[in-house]
Amino acid sequence: MGRTEGDDARWVEFVVLTEDEDDADRADRLARQLRRELAEREFETRSVTAAAPGDTKGDVAVFGAIAVALVGAGGMIPTLIDVLRDWLGRRTGPDRICVRIGDDSVELDRPSFSEREELLQAFLAKHSDR
């Protein structure tokens, strides 16, 4: 992902990862749900085709992916983090999100979100200035 020609947006890719290799529908449903929630907060989103992240933990076989535009990112980052925290907080399973910009990524899950929140904020801020 990244900037597109003639576009002031930095596109951030979100890959929703599930542990159940037979449940592609669930991964897709979770990605669509996250996309709806981001759109409700007025983030521009689009579907993407993505390969499973190479640095994911465990044997992740199923995933769904979306992209989110960060325009003038500074003020959007706290809102984006709030949406992700809320969305992950409602998950009961071992679902995770890989946040990827170009070759750089960070992985989040419900148990680790609070301890990785500062890392996510720094990650998004670093890429919003490019």
Helix-strand layout with pairing:
Elements: E1 9-18, H1 24-40, E2 45-47, E3 62-71, H2 76-89, E4 96-101, E5 104-109, H3 113-128
Radius of gyration: 14 Å
**Class computed from helices, strands and strand pairing:** alpha+beta
**CATH topological fold name:** Alpha-Beta Plaits
Q: How much β-strand is present in the residues?
A: 25-35%
- For the report, how would you describe the main beta sheet? 5 strands, antiparallel
Order of helices and strands: EHEEHEEH
CATH-defined architecture? 2-Layer Sandwich
Provide the number of structural domains.
1
Regions with little confidence, pLDDT below 50 for 5+ residues: 1-6
* C-alpha geometry: globular
Helices, by number, come to 3
Mean pLDDT: 78
Strand order of the largest sheet: 2-3-1-4-5
Q: Regarding CATH, which class?
A: Alpha Beta
Fraction in helix: 25-40%
- Total beta strand runs: 5
InterPro entries: EACC1
Transmembrane segments: 60-81
Coiled coil: 17-44
Keywords: Coiled coil, Membrane, Transmembrane, Transmembrane helix
Structure in words:
A hairpin with a 2-residue loop joins strand 4 (96-101) and strand 5. The chain is globular, with a radius of gyration of 14 Å. Mean pLDDT is 78; it is low at 1-6. The chain is α+β, with helices and mostly antiparallel strands. It has a single domain, classed as 2-Layer Sandwich (Alpha-Beta Plaits), CATH 3.30.70. It is built from three helices and five strands; from the N terminus they run βαββαββα. The chain has a five-stranded antiparallel sheet with strand order 2-3-1-4-5, with helices on one face. Helix 2 (76-89) packs antiparallel against helix 3. The two termini are 13 Å apart. It has helices at 24-40, 76-89, 113-128, and strands at 9-18, 45-47, 62-71, 96-101, 104-109.
